[in-house]
Design goal:
The chain is an alpha+beta fold. The chain has eleven helices and 20 strands. The strands form three sheets. Strands 5, 6, 12, 13, 14, 15, 16, 17 and 20 form a nine-stranded mixed β-sheet that branches. Strands 1, 2, 8, 9, 10, 11, 18 and 19 form an eight-stranded mixed β-sheet that branches. Bound molecules: flavin-adenine dinucleotide. Flavin-adenine dinucleotide binds next to helix 1, strand 12, strand 17 and helix 7.
Length: about 375
Amino acid sequence: MESPLGERISFEFRNKFNLETDVCVIGGGPAGLAAAIAARQRGLQVILADGSAPPIEKPCGEGLMPETLSALQKLGVEFDRAERQTVRGISFLQKNGGVTADFPQSTGVGLRRTVLHERLVRRAEECGVRLLWKCPVAGIEGKLVQLSHCAIRSKWIIGADGHGSRVRRWSGLEKSWRNEQRHARRRHYHVEPWSKYAEIYWASHAQLYVTPIGCNEVCIVVLSEESEHANFAGALAEFPELQRKLEGAELASRERGAVTAMRSLRRVQRNNVALLGDASGGIDAITGEGLRLAFQQAFALADAMTAGDLRWYEQAHRKLMRRPMLMGELMLWLGRNPGIRSRVIRAMQNRPELFARMLAMHVGEGSPGELLSTSARLGWRILAA
Ligand SMILES: Cc1cc2nc3c(=O)[nH]c(=O)nc-3n(C[C@H](O)[C@H](O)[C@H](O)COP(=O)(O)OP(=O)(O)OC[C@H]3O[C@@H](n4cnc5c(N)ncnc54)[C@H](O)[C@@H]3O)c2cc1C
């Protein structure tokens, strides 16, 4: 069967569809659940289908920035004190020292990914989203979404099916401006967090980032361009002090691998289909921005569907991606240039307010003018170092 989008679909849609809705969300990760909640908040009928069942676990650094928390609040999602750990800011650490800054206005949190997922699911249920778990979607055509046991007719179809999105392929939205991938491994350790900050350790060929996620638990992710360097033994060996802190600590989960990407798609919507979250492109995991972006995209998409025009979403999506893309580029560049990185961190050690300003811009405070003046001052310090 030839789809209206020119894609050959390898199955036959049933003649009869048995469900009907305004919005069908494919994928019940954080992005899909947020989109479903935001659409319900605007009065749209929503069905969400996911091939797995909650709580869905996915390798993640498990750090929520202050803006991510604000977006969650807007969705009506909050967490108990006992299940989260406050994160006051970020530390950059290298072999010969480091620099730390607080988030400017409020704090972030670290918490288990499964807790985040459970809360989003609970909120979606409260809002009246119809949730279909263990229901993988096999294809889409026009207004129809095909599940194994039925089809759904929907005015809008949202592809929130993650990094390897099939909706992206089915809807002909695969073309990208860039697509660079890195490798990641994630571990949880039973150990009392030693810092109120999320720590990024810059190793020779990898970065380790540590998030406190409970009173007796930390989450650690190792990231590298080469899969052989994305391993704990190699990266930890460069930081004996961190290694000592983890000595004897039991692993609190199975180590898991993942891929993270800097991907920017040429388009994120076509006809009645829109992509969201990792399906719609991505920012390298080291920025800790993936969840914030997904939630803010969900609001923009709900507004566009309410207004009846997905081109609004396309524009909003492009704007939302701009700042984190820049930050992602900067972090990757620092990772690839150890000599310059070392001087940057030294320069910021001498003038910690510059790091504080950079962090403020990372979390959405400060104008482009301030970014320019901070970069100029930092450049001057590096030359002087
Ligand atoms: C190592 C690593 C560390 C990270 N650390 C952070 C961090 O600290 N902070 C932060 O904000 N972000 C972080 N991120 C990014 C963040 O995890 C992602 O941006 C976020 O998970 C995207 O959510 P999503 O819902 O788009 O995708 P996913 O979470 O991948 O969800 C996709 C869902 O779609 C479902 N699905 C797929 N195909 C189908 C189908 N055919 N039919 C039905 N369902 C389907 C899957 O079962 C899944 O539930 C990190 C990412 C990585 C890889």
